[in-house]
Design goal:
alpha/beta; Rossmann fold; six-stranded parallel beta sheet; 6 helices; 6 strands; 16% strand; globular
């Protein structure tokens, strides 16, 4: 068993001036706000592609955080479809040939319910594929695969790390956590 972290690993002000957009609303992106980022939330049904496009387009956010664990909930085949399709809808809406930025895909824990492992694999595949397809546009994609014992705080710190300038060195990576 690991000891709980009593102090944050990342310094305050690390993300000053960085725009972060969370799709859907998630506590994970709020950690970026605590480090100085301007955080906005996509407040729409991610399966409604037109509404998602309208909510995402026109923002100056340099980082899109897609927390697929939120729509996945307790799992199931329908939840798998909603989470994967919603993640794609948000990522596709954010992409524009002139946009250079980062996409951070956050998967649910493996024990989150039926089909959680499939969702994790789908998000990892999406991150790896887009890192190749969109690299010529300056878009870097990563996936975070929390372990069953990973705390929300630990996952949020990895999100914030990837949103920082240190995250510029990663694309197509899947960060497995224990």
């Amino acid at each position: 068993m690991r000891a709980a972290s009593s102090s944050p690993l990342l310094r305050p002000g690390l993300l000053d001036g960085v725009g972060v957009q969370a799709a859907p609303r998630s506590k994970l992106a709020d950690a970026c706000g605590a480090l100085g980022a301007t955080v906005t939330h996509v407040e729409t049904d991610l399966l409604d592609e037109q509404a998602t496009l309208a909510a995402v387009a026109g923002t100056e956010a340099a980082v899109l955080v897609v927390d697929a664990a939120v729509p996945f909930g307790a799992g199931g085949a329908d939840a798998l479809r909603v989470a994967l399709d919603g993640a794609w809808s948000a990522v596709h809406a954010r992409f524009a040939p002139e946009w250079e930025g980062k996409v951070v895909l956050v998967a649910p824990r493996a024990s989150a319910g039926d089909h959680a492992v499939a969702l994790r694999a789908g998000l990892e595949n999406l991150a790896r594929t887009l890192s190749i397809e969109w690299s010529r546009h300056g878009v870097r994609t990563t996936a975070i695969l929390p372990g069953d014992e990973s705390s929300d705080e630990e996952v949020a710190q990895v999100v914030a790390f990837l949103a920082s300038s240190a995250g510029d060195y990663y694309s197509g990576c899947a960060f497995g956590m224990t």
